[in-house]
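Per your request, structure below.
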């Protein structure tokens, strides 16, 4: 059974085509039925739409999978042909391992990729479309992915402005579950940072904006509290994290206001994120002890450093993947020999029992009988081959390797 991957990803196909081909969870059973393959997984994410399968003849199966993908999007096969890649055997195995380890993602090291592959695998299993060969491939991919995450820094550094803000908040406050955040304004970037903070587990979020209607609408979307903008000064002392997203021509927070809040906080530090252009927070706040102010330029620099760091770590990740592919291929090759090994052991055991039965308890006689009978057929065949069979040199070399005769 040879691994085969057919699909399109963020490198080969535009987002519009990937959206057209996308197979959501509810549609997966029907899609797998359309494929009609005994073992197949449809890996469908924002980055890719792929079919992972194992089969006897990948070359003959490729057109069918391409046609099924195209039909899924209501397109002729020719319309997607230039965006499709087809990988088989070792290249397919390496691709599956790299995808699962998030080394082939648009953002290297995305933590959710492993979970997405597992979810697609589970949907395939529930549809009765998995088997021992495909399950073994995916189990090895999961193992490689865990090694990449534990042995390299591929997922350690933040790679977006919002994730950089969350990481900085954690660096200052540690566990965010005891922290309160204040979002001032309703700009898109501020909302994005607030969403990431909520996902990171902050205990409370308060939204305040010059227009109370916008604050209330945003608070409803984020499922948090809204506070009047005129009460901003009284809201500051409770905030461990302040995110501003007003973007007016005047600053919203002055150094005096921040100093006053810190006095009421008894110098407990505050983390401030200014996502507005021009800025909402007076630059002098940076000089206040206990106030840690970051603007978009600071966060973008950290995100760029994080992306560069992950790309460097990806080389170490691919080294782990390549070793895992080699191990998987070797293990699979070794399994091919198992039936012959079983037959050989059964044959030897039969001869051993015969020798024991005929020797009547005489150990020396039993061992002599056993050795003679074990060597009889091979010796006769070797003589025949050595007499003119062109395969003899290769057979002799194999014999030396099998019994390690050079080591004796």
């Amino acid at each position: 059974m040879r691994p085969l991957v057919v699909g399109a990803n963020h490198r080969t196909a535009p987002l519009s085509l990937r959206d057209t081909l996308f197979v959501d969870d509810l549609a997966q059973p029907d899609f797998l039925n359309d494929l009609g393959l005994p073992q197949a997984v449809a890996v469908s994410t924002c980055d890719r739409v792929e079919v992972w399968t194992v089969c006897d003849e990948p070359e003959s199966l490729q057109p069918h999978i391409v046609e099924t993908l195209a039909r899924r999007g209501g397109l002729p096969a020719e319309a997607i042909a230039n965006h499709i890649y087809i990988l088989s055997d070792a290249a397919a195995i390496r691709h599956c391992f790299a995808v699962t380890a998030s080394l082939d993602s648009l953002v290297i090291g995305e933590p959710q990729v492993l979970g997405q592959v597992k979810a697609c695998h589970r949907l395939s299993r529930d549809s009765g479309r998995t088997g021992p060969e495909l399950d073994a491939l995916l189990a090895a991919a999961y193992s490689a992915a865990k090694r990449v995450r534990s042995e390299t820094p591929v997922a350690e550094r933040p790679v977006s402005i919002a994730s950089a803000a969350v990481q900085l908040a954690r660096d200052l406050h540690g566990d965010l579950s005891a922290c309160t955040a204040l979002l001032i304004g309703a700009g898109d970037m501020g909302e994005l940072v607030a969403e990431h903070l909520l996902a990171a587990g902050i205990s409370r979020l308060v939204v305040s904006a010059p227009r109370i209607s916008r604050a209330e609408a945003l608070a409803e979307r984020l499922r948090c509290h809204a506070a009047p903008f005129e009460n901003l000064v009284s809201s500051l002392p409770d905030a461990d994290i302040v995110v501003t997203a007003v973007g007016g021509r005047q600053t919203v927070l002055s150094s005096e206001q921040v100093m006053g809040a810190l006095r009421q906080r008894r110098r407990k530090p505050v983390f401030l994120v200014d996502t507005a252009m021009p800025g909402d927070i007076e630059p002098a706040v940076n000089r206040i002890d206990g106030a840690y102010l970051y603007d978009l330029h600071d966060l973008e620099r950290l995100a760029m450093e994080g992306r560069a760091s992950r790309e460097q770590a990806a080389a170490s990740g691919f080294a782990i993947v390549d070793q895992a592919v080699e191990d998987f291929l070797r293990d699979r090759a070794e399994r091919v020999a198992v039936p012959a090994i079983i037959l050989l052991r059964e044959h030897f055991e039969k001869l051993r029992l015969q020798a024991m039965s005929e020797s009547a308890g005489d150990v020396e006689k039993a061992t002599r009988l056993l050795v003679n009978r074990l060597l009889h057929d091979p010796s006769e065949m070797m003589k025949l081959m050595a007499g003119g069979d062109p395969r003899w040199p290769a057979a002799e070399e194999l014999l030396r390797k099998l019994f390690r005769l050079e080591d004796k």
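The first strand starts at residue 2 and ends at 9.

Regards,
D.
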